[in-house]
Specification:
7-stranded mixed sheet, Ribosomal Protein S5, domain 2, 29% strand, EC 2.7.1.148, single chain, 2 domains, 4-stranded antiparallel sheet, alpha+beta, 9 helices, 11 strands, Alpha-Beta Plaits
Length: 291
Amino acid sequence: MHVYDAVAPAKVNLTLHVLSKRPDGYHDLASLMVPISLADRLRIEVGEGSAVRVEVPGRPELEGDSNLCAAAARAFARELGSAGSVRVVLDKRVPIAAGLGGGSSDAAAVLRALARHRGVALDDPRLHAAALSVGSDVPFFLRCEAALVGGRGELLLPAPGLPELLAFVIVQAPYGVSAREAYEGLAAMRASGELPPGHDEPLPAALGSAEEVAGILTNDLEAAVSRTRPIGDCKTRLLEAGVLAALMSGSGPSVLGVARDAAHAEACARSLRRAPGEEVHVARTLKAFSD
């Protein structure tokens, strides 16, 4: 048996433009995504046979074949051939259904481990195909570095220059939002004329400070989710606590606040008026990542 320990960082979307709907039912996107220090931990055991098993201590509802870790192992076998039996023990720390990509990152961690086991390069197109078949965010997490993400998630381009470190206050709501709910809500608002059609906005070649990053925050899904969830209230409380700017991440409902630096993020987190059931995380960007 071979054992691989892996880290699965969350992500935040600093920009998210939802463009036209594709023939395959997905939307084309244009998003600046960055990995952050909030992360799950995984132990991946590869042995004889072909069984796939996922265990999530303390969270039995997340175990079983529906977990994206299991889907990743099956996708790897389908695209590259079986690596053997796979047992994943997942220490779940990233909130689920929160717009932070936790499940997709877990899946990518399994793919990286199996690729390492089989001597497969991370840029192998078969590995990329396996990642995309599991979920739109999974290709981003294979390398887990800041990127401009296009298509439905399969197109990855270098990100603009970013500060060496960005610090965030992330508010985790006591409820989840499915991506389907967010996208259907946006489609309804666009169909009624409440929101204009989607369009991309070019970014500067470099963003040299936290203040400049704060100035580009945008998320097309935020308005739709805000109709049924108190996203605006959370943003207001973050701004009152002193962050430079606040934005819903991904399909929500997590809301991030951009801080000047790590110390400022900690101070804002302490000052934040918290709603019942909320959890607050202080996180930073990951400049370079490896398991």
